[in-house]
Amino acid sequence: MGAINNVAGGAGVLGFMAFERFCGLPFDIANPSTRPGAVGVGIFAWLGYLRMGLRPESRAWRMGLIAMLGAICGVLIEAQRNEVLFRSYLAIVLLLLLIQQLKKATTGVAPQRAWPPWATLLGSLLIGVHMGYVQIGTGLMATFVLQATYSRDLVATNVAKAAIVILCSIASVAGFALEPWLHPERAVVIAWVPALWLALGTAFGSYFGSKWTVKNGKEAVKKVVVGVALLSLGDQLWHLVSLLRPGG
């Protein structure tokens, strides 16, 4: 999961499915419990890139600070516990990313469009909201935003993404840890034992995934992005059909 999340994003659905189907966690506990794993993904991806001499630019860290505010907003949205809204939103994000990745590439190096400052601000905020609310597919959302406002190169995008994920995932964990103070009826929000085991596994996977990204280049990364997005989209549509059908 960590390797896929670092390379492309969207593998959080694997942890979410494991929590629901193998650990028996209810939806409103399984979803927040994926956040510690996101912290591991971000930190170890960053360390992996540092070892190879790649550092996120200061602009990426500033985007991460803005994303932290969005993450707290996402935690508040998640507290509503609307599963149909959750899965519908995620399916839309996955579909948008597939459209972006499957567009025919232009020949040569296309110039980066000059986006106004508010677009970068809004995009960073949306990455944070997505992390706090869904987490699954945050890497996909970050790729979508960063390729529009930061860089067209997927390797550079992944380096910047590591910085943003570190900050907004930490904000999400803090928000869920404090949520019982706001909603006493939810005494447990994160199942810490399976969540920390997931964090350990994703941390190592993320570290080795960062090395794979640099070694294989953007075309190999793109194939993983498309494959993970397709699998994730299919899973969400299956759940939506189950929820919306009579008696579902």
Report what the structure shows.
There is one protein chain. The protein is mostly helical. It has one domain (2-103, 138-244). Helices cover 76% and strands 0% of the residues. The chain has helices at 2-7, 12-21, 27-30, 35-51, 58-78, 83-102, 117-133, 138-149, 154-182, 192-244. Helix 7 packs antiparallel against helix 8 and helix 8 crosses helix 9 (154-182). It is globular, with a radius of gyration of 17 Å. The model has no long low-confidence stretch (mean pLDDT 82).
Which series of helices and strands comes N to C?
Answer: HHHHHHHHHH
The level of helicity is over 70%
Based on CA atoms alone, the radius of gyration comes out at 17 Å
The chain-level structural class is mainly alpha
Number of helices: 10
Most strands sheet: none
Give the total of beta strands: 0
State the separation between the terminal residues, measured CA to CA: 29 Å
Keyword list:
globular, 76% helix, single chain, 248 residues, mainly alpha
TL;DR of this structure?
Helices cover 76% and strands 0% of the residues.
List strands and helices in order, with pairings.
Blueprint: H1 2-7, H2 12-21, H3 27-30, H4 35-51, H5 58-78, H6 83-102, H7 117-133, H8 138-149, H9 154-182, H10 192-244
Helix pairs in contact: 4-9, 4-10, 5-7, 5-9, 6-8, 6-10, 7-8, 7-9, 8-9, 9-10
